[in-house]
Amino acid sequence: MGRVTESSGRPVVVFDLDNTLADTAHRQRFLERKPRDWDGFFAAAPQDPPLAEGVALVKESARECEVVYLTGRPERCRRDTLHWLAAQGLPAGRVFMRRDAGWAGGGRGDRRPARHTKLEVLRRLARDREVRLLVDDDEQVCEAAERAGFTVLRARWAERSAALEDAQQREGRT
């Protein structure tokens, strides 16, 4: 997947957001209740503290590569997400998010597991660009990307959350 074509610009480095760049520990409580409070979970995202290791890696990567952000957050969180990235002094880059329910295509939002949705975007990016690295905390996303031939760095600098992992894989919410 690391091939470069004539139309390629700089290589791409792809970063996940939640628990890779943004510390979600303060909002895990919204996922630990039944039913899960997704509106509360995403509404609290603008208060996420940055994760120093991830932020430093984005800034370092931007010297040689185009930075792309790939998140399971729904499209309705775009404004808050862009503001958060700017507030952390992170480089501008394309942001790929999940389709909202009722989004332009109509119908239900994209609730496939993150390992499927993120791999789909990675493959699209790799059609005409070198995808140098994916940085993500989700083990299943990392494994799927490695099986597809991508180079992966596992973001293991945030506290693990069983509720978030379940949401990523079974509920397709983040």
Overall mean pLDDT stands at: 86
CATH topology: Rossmann fold
Strand content: 15-25%
- CATH superfamily annotation: HAD superfamily/HAD-like
So how many helices?
7
Order of helices and strands: EHHHEHEHEHEH
- The global form is globular
For the termini, the CA-CA separation is 25 Å
Structural class: alpha/beta
The second-level CATH architecture is 3-Layer(aba) Sandwich
Q: Uncertain runs with pLDDT below 50, 5 residues or more?
A: 1-8, 102-107
What fraction, in percent, of the residue positions are helical? 25-40%
Major sheet: order of its strands? 3-2-1-4-5
CATH class: Alpha Beta
What can be said about the biggest beta sheet? 5 strands, parallel
Gyration radius, rounded:
15 Å
- Please tell me the total number of domains: 1
According to DSSP, the number of beta strands is: 5
Protein name: Polynucleotide kinase PNKP phosphatase domain-containing protein
Domain Polynucleotide kinase PNKP phosphatase: 12-154
Pfam family, one: HAD_PNKP
Organism: Streptomyces brasiliensis
